[in-house]
Amino acid sequence: MMPQTPPARVCSHCDGFPIVHITTGTTQDGQRRTLAATCPACKGTGSNTARIMRRAEVSA
Question: Using CA atoms, how far apart are residues 13 and 44, in angstroms rounded to an integer?
Answer without folding.
Answer: 11
